[in-house]
Each structure stands twice: as C-alpha cells, then as structure tokens.
Amino acid sequence: MEIVVVGRHTDVADRFRQHVEEKLAKVELLSPYVRRVDVEVTHENNPRLSENRERVELTLRAKGPVIRAEAAADDRFGALDLAIDKLNERLRRARDRRKDHRNNKVLAPVDVRPLDEILTDEGSGAANAPEPQISTPAALSAPGDSVETTIGDSPVVIRQKLHHADPMTLDDAVYEMEMVGHDFYLFIDKETSRPSVLYKRKGWSFGVIQLDNPCGAAPVTDLS
Question: Of the candidates 204, 201, 208, which has an alpha carbon nearest to the alpha carbon of residue 187?
Fold first, then answer.
C-alpha cells in the first residue's frame, strides 16, 4: 500500500509522516485491495478557527470506489485520528454492503419526484435566485484537474474540479456518496442517461434532481 502525504499551505514533518504510516497500517485489514492512500494536511491561519485549524483529508484508492474521510481539530494528530475513525467506519459499511448484495438486500427507496415538488417541500427559493456572474476559468481537460475562480469582485471563491463519470444506478450513487462522506453526489443515471444530483434530506431520506436533457443529446431550442 502506497501512502502519499502532502501539505497544503503548510509543511509536514517526518514525525507526522511516520505517525500516518503507523495509523494507516491497520486499514489493509478492512480493505485488503487498497493500492494507495492520499493524505492531505491543511493549516488554517485564521485565529478565529483555532479549534479547527488543522484539517486532514484521507482518500483511499482501491479496487472498488474511492473512499474519502476528513476531519479538523486544533492539532493535526487529533485531526488524523478523527479522520481515520471515519474512514474505518466507511470501510466497514462498504464491507457490509458487499455482504448485503450477496444476500440480495436493497436500500430504501429514493425520492425521484419532479424538481418543483422537491423545492416546494424543502422550502427553497433557489429556483428563483439570480444567476451569479462567475469568471470563466481555463478549460479542465483531464479528470482530477481543478481550478479556483472568483464571483465578480466579491471575496467568494469557487473551486471547480473535473471527475470521471461512469453511468450508475441510484443504489450505486447512494453508496458512492456515503463512501466520500458528502451531502450530495453528481452522477449520470444508468437507466435514463440524465445528469443527476443525489442529496441527503432528513434522517435516512434522500432526494434526486435530474436534468431533462440526457447526456449526449442535442439541446432543445425554443423557436416560438
């Protein structure tokens, strides 16, 4: 198993790198096919965020889907421990899911109602929000490429990243979202070929927003 430790806006001491290797040695027990673990350490300079000034993000790459976990604390050793706990929990869930598949178990149904009904129930006014002016970044050419841009003259920074996407089922999308620990997941629906966003609602409830134009289809032009 290859372990790659990098620092973002900070230096990483050899002592911490050695500690990372010792902690991640147990990961192979839960994921014997793991090939590589990327460890990114970020230091926050804002004194108001002193309790969460050190952030550690773990990205595990194995034979199956990418599994990610991150945590923040006042020191990077504590943040690493929290992140590893999250990673181990997701690895256990991945192992249990493989067992469930062998037993033909299925996940709870996902909300696939029309977008207007979902927004009404969520009490969201996002559908009527004005479109922000975002500067156009350089084209992203390969999966993994990322770029940061700003909205006009505001201090808001938008980070864009290009990901590879294979069509998948809703069941697979729920699983992938849980493995990366996000509240949403962008994917291409295998049955409809529509770009879709899966997101968490309350409790164990999920919602799906889909675009009505399948991937690869020509845009519809209104000539009226």
Answer: 208
Give the C-alpha separation, 47 to 143, whole Å: 35
Name the residue type at position 220.
V
Alpha carbon separation from 46 to 50, 54, 82, 92, 224 (Å, rounded): 7, 11, 21, 35, 54
- Beta bridge partner(s), residue 68: 59
Claim: this prediction has a pTM higher than 0.90? no
Which of the given ranges, 6-20, 97-111, 169-183, has the highest pLDDT on average? 6-20
